[in-house]
Specification:
The chain is mostly helical. The chain has 10 helices and no strands. Helix 4 runs parallel beside helix 7, helix 7 crosses helix 8 and helix 8 packs antiparallel against helix 9. The N and C termini lie far apart (68 Å).
Length: 199
């Protein structure tokens, strides 16, 4: 198997193992066995379990950030932006590979590099939402950031809970419920741009 193809195979196998069992309960021996390779072959591609885990976290972190950036750029209408942000979290969590668990449920939060990668999409999207709120309301960034954190935190927590509870509410209905609550909160703040247009 070509080196690049082998590396992708090992990453996919490792992701399955980490999603199922978490970092601590997964060994390099298990990953090698699942992939059908010897342990030395696995170490030819990755120096150790942490490097492998960080590579997977980075991939999922980048994927979620791309989805969230796309959501915020999808419309100039703030209600639609809020709904798109909620949708991004739900669709990320709803992926059949359950890779969202690497970011949302990691059991290695004591490792700074892991914590940074797991929190990066949350921070990035909360800050992006805060900047839009500042533009629209003139609110101080520190206050807008609290609102950004509340929106993103709600979307992530609800998506995570929705999956863990077995997706009992249909996806579209779940997104609409959470987006409605979020918009009724954030949408209540007056818009500076609306006042400017009416002058």
């Amino acid at each position: 198997m070509p080196r690049a193809e082998r590396r992708e195979q090992l990453l996919a196998t490792a992701q399955e193992a980490f999603v199922e069992s978490g970092y601590h309960a997964t060994s390099m021996d298990e990953i090698a066995e699942r992939a059908g390779v010897s342990k030395p072959v696995l170490y030819q591609h990755f120096d150790g379990k942490l490097e492998l885990y960080l590579g997977l976290l980075e991939t999922q972190s980048d994927k979620l950030i791309d989805q969230l950036e796309g959501a915020l750029a999808s419309s100039d209408d703030n209600a639609e932006r809020v709904a798109a942000t909620v949708r991004a979290y739900f669709e990320f969590a709803d992926a059949p590979d359950d890779a969202h668990r690497l970011l949302f449920e990691t059991d290695l939060t004591t490792e700074p590099a892991v914590r940074d990668l797991a929190e990066r999409p949350f921070r990035a999207s909360a800050d992006a939402v805060a900047k839009l709120i500042v533009q629209d309301t003139g609110m101080p960034f520190s206050s807008a950031q609290l609102l950004g954190v509340s929106l993103v935190g709600m979307a992530q927590a609800c998506a995570q809970r929705w999956v863990s509870e077995g997706r009992q509410t249909p996806l579209e209905e779940a997104i609409e419920l959470v987006a409605t609550v979020a918009w009724r909160g954030i949408g209540g703040f007056p818009l500076n741009r609306a006042e400017t247009e009416s002058d």
